[in-house]
């Protein structure tokens, strides 16, 4: 092609083949290329023959020059040999790493203009997004009978890089790539959120595959098998992307996670006109970065349906025991059958929960048939939390996304099925597991609304004697301590329900039988002082700073629940008479109230207050005293009521 005299003097123009051979020219480009010469390289790369011969070797040279080299990389993706370039792009993704100096600033005004929309992104994210855009273009050009081989190569590299650099922008890029690889014909929507604005999309003409298979279409049987294998790889990639996104991309800024269970319960609960506190649903509707989380999950749910991920398939994987699970996918030994490509079960439960939540909150997508508490949610708890010493330990240590998913599925689950309605062991697993999930994660402890999930499971069990036995076990056994606070509330609800149901006789209901109730009462009202048995300079009145914080954060709510429950019994003349509360008052006074008042008195002593303030500060003192004052106020109310 004819070149202006000024351009022709540039080494990148003057040395163009046939003036030099391709290898020599490539070496010259490597040593002569500067950001200022990128427009010249972009010009010469319009020569398809040249780009086919050297384009794949330019990838590693151009990636560090992003975002200014984006046009040149796009040229290589559109005009180079797609098979060779895919390998180079995959290698570049595997080697991608964050650098210490990632400023995208430049002294060149034109380059600054080109990079302005991405200046806020770290360089490695710009590189990741550009490389994925190249893969979209390259895969659309390849004509081969074995598409899955190239998809597997790209997918392996993409997932490895994404696991190192998960961000909302890299998530948007990988979802765009998966959509393009699927051959989905629907045009991409205009960018709706900030992460989508960072996507790179090629708009130039694409050259045909220079090595296109002569019989790329193949026979119908082999073609169908190849399509299924490719589809399974895309299913695998989508589930891995979802898992990484929920585990690593939605913690900050707060609130952390998707808060699915909380929002679902808010949706299911009867709205109260007098409540003006913003709900989690309001937050996710009004705050932009939270809306973006929902948008991302919406895209994943939509893609999962496009990729043929049926709900029944997800459930089948979720319900498998640990011993029945296949080994992880080995990309170096790719299976020939789609059934041999395993879908990771943690990702499957996240996707199933995402579908249920999307349908519940937004009424969008295909309605998902809810699971049943028995045996479905029971099996999920056993499969995902059953390897721990206790459900509470499991809920505290497992990722919040998993616990949120389990609670969400349980919140919308049907209460029972006729054939499994009286599974006593399943009932215990269900109540303990859901209670642990609603109370174990630190992020959930502030949301009392989540207590509705295990409460519904408890009250729905048809055998009232089994419910009573479990209640007594929770209130008596030390390892069930985490469930005592909600159990007191369940007991109150059982008594209210019975009071409103006079048709039941006292012998039908152990909760309202005075003798049976006495066992529950004695289990509730046992005082165990957290204070040390001896007074020392570091623990005046036996109160250490650790005891002070334990009282403030953990023990005070239990004391308040027990006091409020006793006040409830005293104020209900019907229950007070029926349960013989007057005869139980000496037990309450001696075993709980008097020791509690003595403990609160120790907490309030000047020596303790001075020591706590010196060790922890005035704010800690105020927190503890506020909790103590509330306890004393309820004690005063009880004493007036009795």
Average predicted local confidence, pLDDT: 87
Amount of helix: 55-70%
Radius of gyration: 32 Å
Structural class: mainly alpha
First-residue to last-residue Cα separation: 103 Å
Spatial shape = elongated
Report the sheet with the most strands, covering strand number, pairing sense and barrel closure: none
Q: Tell me the total number of β-strands.
A: 0
Runs with pLDDT <50, length 5+? 103-111, 113-119
**Number of helices, where a helix is a run of at least 4 consecutive DSSP H or I residues:** 31
Strand content: under 5%
Account of the protein in words:
- Among the domains are: 5-99 and 114-202, no CATH class; 525-642, no CATH class.
- It contains 31 helices and no strands.
- The chain has helices at 5-8, 11-14, 22-32, 38-44, 48-62, 70-79, 82-95, 109-115, 123-141, 147-164, 168-181, 194-197, 220-248, 260-268, 280-286, 288-306, 311-318, 345-362, 373-385, 391-397, 400-412, 424-439, 452-460, 464-476, 484-499, 514-524, 545-571, 573-578, 581-603, 606-616, 618-641.
- Helix 9 packs parallel to helix 11 (168-181) and helix 11 packs parallel to helix 16.
- The longest helix is centred in the middle third of the chain and has 29 residues, at 220-248.
- The N and C termini lie far apart (103 Å).
- Mean pLDDT is 87; it is low at 103-111 and 113-119.
- Residues 186-224 are annotated as: Disordered.
- It comes from Trichophyton tonsurans (strain CBS 112818) (Scalp ringworm fungus).
Give a quick precis of the structure.
This protein is mainly α and 642 residues long. Helices cover 63% and strands 0% of the residues.
